[in-house]
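ingest -> validate -> predict -> emit
validate: passed (alphabet ok, no gaps, 168 aa)
predict: started
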Amino acid sequence: MRNIIAGFFILLTIGLMAWVASNGGAYNGGEAGRITEDIGNRVATTKIDSEPKAKSDREKENEALTALRDKAGNIGSFKVSDEYKSKCSSCHGVDGSGMQYGKKLMGPKLFGQSADELYKKLDDFKSGRKENMIMRGLLLHLSQDDLKRLAKEIGEFPARAEALKNSK
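emit:
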Protein backbone atom coordinates (compact mmCIF):
# COMPACT_ATOMS: atom_id res chain seq x y z
CA MET A 1 0.00 0.00 0.00
CA ARG A 2 2.87 2.35 0.87
CA ASN A 3 4.43 1.82 -2.57
CA ILE A 4 1.13 2.58 -4.31
CA ILE A 5 0.76 5.88 -2.44
CA ALA A 6 4.40 6.84 -3.16
CA GLY A 7 3.93 5.95 -6.85
CA PHE A 8 0.76 8.05 -7.01
CA PHE A 9 2.54 11.12 -5.59
CA ILE A 10 5.50 10.64 -7.93
CA LEU A 11 3.15 10.51 -10.95
CA LEU A 12 1.25 13.53 -9.62
CA THR A 13 4.51 15.49 -9.20
CA ILE A 14 5.70 14.60 -12.70
CA GLY A 15 2.29 15.56 -14.12
CA LEU A 16 2.37 18.93 -12.34
CA MET A 17 5.93 19.56 -13.59
CA ALA A 18 4.85 18.83 -17.17
CA TRP A 19 1.82 21.11 -16.83
CA VAL A 20 3.93 24.02 -15.43
CA ALA A 21 6.53 23.55 -18.20
CA SER A 22 3.84 23.58 -20.88
CA ASN A 23 2.44 26.86 -19.51
CA GLY A 24 5.76 28.71 -19.77
CA GLY A 25 7.45 27.66 -16.56
CA ALA A 26 6.99 28.86 -13.03
CA TYR A 27 9.61 31.59 -13.16
CA ASN A 28 10.84 31.60 -16.74
CA GLY A 29 7.74 32.47 -18.65
CA GLY A 30 4.05 33.04 -18.51
CA GLU A 31 2.65 36.42 -17.46
CA ALA A 32 5.43 37.03 -14.93
CA GLY A 33 8.07 36.47 -17.61
CA ARG A 34 6.49 39.02 -19.92
CA ILE A 35 6.27 41.60 -17.13
CA THR A 36 9.92 41.23 -16.16
CA GLU A 37 10.93 41.35 -19.83
CA ASP A 38 9.06 44.66 -20.24
CA ILE A 39 10.76 46.08 -17.16
CA GLY A 40 14.14 44.99 -18.49
CA ASN A 41 13.49 46.70 -21.81
CA ARG A 42 12.51 49.96 -20.07
CA VAL A 43 15.64 49.91 -17.92
CA ALA A 44 17.84 49.17 -20.94
CA THR A 45 16.45 52.09 -22.95
CA THR A 46 16.82 54.58 -20.08
CA LYS A 47 20.38 53.43 -19.38
CA ILE A 48 21.42 54.14 -22.97
CA ASP A 49 20.18 57.72 -22.76
CA SER A 50 21.79 58.51 -19.40
CA GLU A 51 24.95 56.40 -19.62
CA PRO A 52 28.09 58.44 -18.83
CA LYS A 53 31.00 58.63 -21.23
CA ALA A 54 33.57 55.88 -20.68
CA LYS A 55 36.69 57.03 -18.85
CA SER A 56 40.07 56.83 -20.44
CA ASP A 57 42.82 54.70 -18.92
CA ARG A 58 44.59 57.89 -17.84
CA GLU A 59 41.52 59.11 -15.93
CA LYS A 60 41.06 55.73 -14.25
CA GLU A 61 44.72 55.69 -13.26
CA ASN A 62 44.50 59.22 -11.80
CA GLU A 63 41.40 58.28 -9.81
CA ALA A 64 43.14 55.19 -8.44
CA LEU A 65 46.21 57.24 -7.47
CA THR A 66 44.05 59.88 -5.79
CA ALA A 67 42.17 57.21 -3.84
CA LEU A 68 45.47 55.63 -2.79
CA ARG A 69 46.87 58.98 -1.66
CA ASP A 70 43.71 59.70 0.30
CA LYS A 71 43.85 56.28 1.92
CA ALA A 72 47.52 56.53 2.84
CA GLY A 73 47.38 60.16 3.87
CA ASN A 74 49.75 62.97 3.12
CA ILE A 75 53.35 61.87 3.57
CA GLY A 76 54.38 65.31 4.80
CA SER A 77 51.81 65.39 7.56
CA PHE A 78 52.63 65.48 11.25
CA LYS A 79 53.76 62.40 13.14
CA VAL A 80 51.21 60.17 14.84
CA SER A 81 51.67 57.17 17.11
CA ASP A 82 51.72 53.63 15.82
CA GLU A 83 48.61 52.96 17.92
CA TYR A 84 46.70 55.70 16.09
CA LYS A 85 47.97 54.44 12.74
CA SER A 86 46.92 50.85 13.45
CA LYS A 87 43.56 51.54 15.08
CA CYS A 88 42.25 54.82 13.68
CA SER A 89 43.88 56.06 10.48
CA SER A 90 42.30 53.55 8.11
CA CYS A 91 38.85 55.06 8.78
CA HIS A 92 39.57 58.56 10.13
CA GLY A 93 42.59 59.41 7.97
CA VAL A 94 46.22 59.73 8.93
CA ASP A 95 45.61 63.28 10.17
CA GLY A 96 42.09 62.81 11.58
CA SER A 97 40.43 64.62 8.70
CA GLY A 98 37.91 61.82 8.13
CA MET A 99 37.58 59.34 5.27
CA GLN A 100 34.93 59.01 2.61
CA TYR A 101 34.72 56.50 -0.24
CA GLY A 102 32.31 57.74 -2.84
CA LYS A 103 29.22 58.73 -0.90
CA LYS A 104 29.90 56.41 2.01
CA LEU A 105 31.44 57.93 5.14
CA MET A 106 34.05 55.58 6.58
CA GLY A 107 35.07 57.61 9.61
CA PRO A 108 34.04 61.12 10.67
CA LYS A 109 36.43 64.02 11.09
CA LEU A 110 38.32 63.96 14.40
CA PHE A 111 40.54 66.96 13.68
CA GLY A 112 39.63 69.94 15.86
CA GLN A 113 37.82 68.06 18.63
CA SER A 114 39.04 68.47 22.19
CA ALA A 115 40.70 65.64 24.11
CA ASP A 116 37.84 65.59 26.64
CA GLU A 117 35.24 65.35 23.88
CA LEU A 118 37.15 62.54 22.20
CA TYR A 119 37.68 60.63 25.44
CA LYS A 120 33.95 60.70 26.20
CA LYS A 121 33.13 59.42 22.70
CA LEU A 122 35.78 56.68 22.90
CA ASP A 123 34.48 55.62 26.31
CA ASP A 124 30.91 55.56 24.98
CA PHE A 125 31.95 53.32 22.07
CA LYS A 126 33.91 51.00 24.34
CA SER A 127 31.07 50.64 26.85
CA GLY A 128 28.42 50.17 24.15
CA ARG A 129 26.51 53.39 24.91
CA LYS A 130 27.19 54.34 21.29
CA GLU A 131 26.68 51.49 18.86
CA ASN A 132 29.48 50.82 16.41
CA MET A 133 30.83 47.29 16.25
CA ILE A 134 34.10 48.32 14.60
CA MET A 135 34.87 50.99 17.18
CA ARG A 136 33.88 48.72 20.05
CA GLY A 137 36.05 45.91 18.73
CA LEU A 138 39.05 48.22 18.37
CA LEU A 139 38.65 49.71 21.84
CA LEU A 140 37.51 46.66 23.77
CA HIS A 141 40.94 45.67 25.11
CA LEU A 142 42.19 49.20 25.80
CA SER A 143 42.34 50.56 29.34
CA GLN A 144 40.94 53.94 30.37
CA ASP A 145 44.51 55.31 30.39
CA ASP A 146 44.95 54.09 26.80
CA LEU A 147 41.73 55.87 25.81
CA LYS A 148 42.88 59.09 27.50
CA ARG A 149 46.28 58.90 25.79
CA LEU A 150 44.65 58.32 22.38
CA ALA A 151 42.14 61.16 22.94
CA LYS A 152 44.96 63.48 24.03
CA GLU A 153 46.99 62.66 20.93
CA ILE A 154 44.05 63.27 18.57
CA GLY A 155 43.18 66.47 20.45
CA GLU A 156 46.72 67.74 19.71
CA PHE A 157 46.34 67.31 15.92
CA PRO A 158 45.48 71.00 15.23
CA ALA A 159 48.54 72.18 17.17
CA ARG A 160 50.75 69.64 15.38
CA ALA A 161 49.42 70.74 12.00
CA GLU A 162 50.04 74.38 12.85
CA ALA A 163 53.60 73.59 13.99
CA LEU A 164 54.24 71.69 10.77
CA LYS A 165 52.83 74.57 8.71
CA ASN A 166 55.02 77.10 10.53
CA SER A 167 58.13 74.97 10.10
CA LYS A 168 57.84 74.98 6.29
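The longest strand covers residues 104-107.
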